[in-house]
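Lecture notes, structural biology module. Today: joint structure prediction for complexes of two components.
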Amino acid sequence: MKNYLGFLKKEFYHIIRDFRTLLLLFGLPVIQILIFGYVIRNEILDVKIAVLDNSKDEVTREITSKILSSDFFILKENISNTKDIDKIFKDGKVKEVIIFESDFAEKLEKYGSADIQLLADASDPNSASLVINYTQGIIANYIKGINKQIKQPLQIVTNVRMMYNPELKSAFMFVPGTMAMILMLVSAMMTSISIVREKEFGTMEALLVSPLKPLQIILGKVTPYVLLSFVNAVTIIFLGYLVFGLPVRGSIILLLAVSILFITLALSLGILISTFSRSQQVAMFISVFALMLPTILLSGFIFPIENMPEILQWLSYIVPPKYFIIIIRNIMLKGADLTQIWTETSVILGMTILFIALSVIKFKTRLE
Amino acid sequence: MLPIIVIVPIVQLIILAHAATMEMKHIKLYVVDKDLSATSKKLINKFRGSPFFVITEFGFSVSEAESAMLQNKTDAILHIPVNFEKKLYSENTSDIQLLIDAINGLKAGLTNAYAYAVISGFNREILQERGSVMSINVNLKSIRTHYSYWYNPQLNFKFYIVPGILVILVSMIGLFLTALNIVREKEIGTIEQINVTPIRKYQLLTGKLLPFWIIALFELGFGLILAKILFNIPVEGSLFLLFSFAGIFLLVVLGIGLFISTIANTQQQVMFMVFFFMLTFILMSGIFTPEESMPTWAQKLNLLNPFSYFMRVIRMVLLKGSGFKEVFNEFVSITIFGIVVLSLAIWRYRKIA
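The predicted structure, tokenised, for the full assembly:
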């Protein structure tokens, strides 16, 4: 036991004294959370528009000011010629052009209807459809106001409720994913590299002939990363709560327990990788391509899996973080309890057992 | 080396373009139709006809639907209450409820937009149908809105994301290869041999950087051809303009790579630093989400982010056919960038190991 503690201490020093690693360990989660929470947003805010008002009467002015007084749009330019539209779109200055037909107020008064044309720069398709949608909403509101006195026929009123995340904050989506990614990075990638480094330098043999048992060596290697990962997980949950008001609606104990289970899974993956790579480069290469990329792309972290081609959807089933992300989203945001997440939890448990078993088999053959 | 140059773009374009999609189609809709009237059925049919929605389940209980949402079996719930049709024709107004799983805010916003389009379209339709029959008040005013999506009428998300992937591709090749190449020589020790030769610093550095500059530009061309073949990406603007911009942009990238190689001692450190760097700058550059919706501080920071300029220019030139006049400002900025970064890196690089 004393030997083991000494070894453990040495491993801790290894990690703490390398400031670049530490930077990655603690800087990355913070930066990631801030970027995802603040920067990756698709909401419509201060969208620059141009107005081509062929009528310039009271009604068109009123509609324009209605549109501009919402927080969504800023008037960048008034244009007078349809020929200019292509040019200002190409400049990238505006995202939408609103065109009022001539004699707008008169037509509205006389015939009861008038036309507005909305042109959106759809080189960014998602924003374009949101921009059109918002503008239509404002115009519809305006016309409702005009028709107030007259009872409007056959109106279908849609009450929309945004469940679990009424303010549509992007942090709600990204914090669970960031947690999975960081835990994967720290537990699997760093562990595998640190074990392989001993192999590469030849110091592994020295460790193996020491009175330490193989199990103790592995545990000694792994323990610091378990602690670091756990600290990271708690930091991320805390940051999410503090900065973005991300709730933990379910049980926090369940959340932490599942996190530990996932950390174990990641560590067993790291050990497994270390058993079949000879150099740090190989370990790193495998970690990046077999762990990090799938975690970022195929886990539903950023991109919804259901929109991917079938093959990628199938592939996503063997990506462990996918299950972890579902679990934390459900616990944190939907307040799910164990009965609602037991499928995913048992998948993770099964994978963990499989990977540990595999690495034990691999590890033994290597010792012989 | 050669396999990397050929395989990386193919893999990136095929996998990233399909995986990195924020296109929201196939939104799973759970329909709770308690009315079961002709009107409600027609409305549901409208949803069925929309390319954005897939009706996955029908039910009669909202709480059952909500528990399906809890288990991620559905993205949105359309609740049509009892007497929907009756109320609509007797009281002239009737409510329906739409519950959207908003954990993914982007998706929820789009779901709402698409649903609004379907429902208001349906509303107009029944107004026209019934309007004449019921001789509805002619005094009612209406403003018709017509809309069109320029440069990408089908709202094809690939057109948006593939130019972004090309930016990643070009920068990654430039950054990784430069930094790794020099650091490897450091690790192996051969850099010292070069350092003791009479070769001048600028000769050494141009010799080191020029091949990667050419390779990266070649990658851009190769990537563009692939993008054209695989996804039929529009090329509206001048390729010469795009390549000249890329050429200057690459000076910045190579400068950063050179700079990293001066602070890193091992290839592992290079990997970590590049990973950290790329992830941050690429995500900030507006690859997935528009720059305008970022907070002001992020937009200001982006003035210092070379990737955001290229991201903007490649989309403007490829999709909209913007010319030199329209991207002039970006040209000036990236040129200043190139000069500053490259001279900093060259100044920092010492011919000592």
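Point to remember: Chain B has a mean pLDDT of 86.
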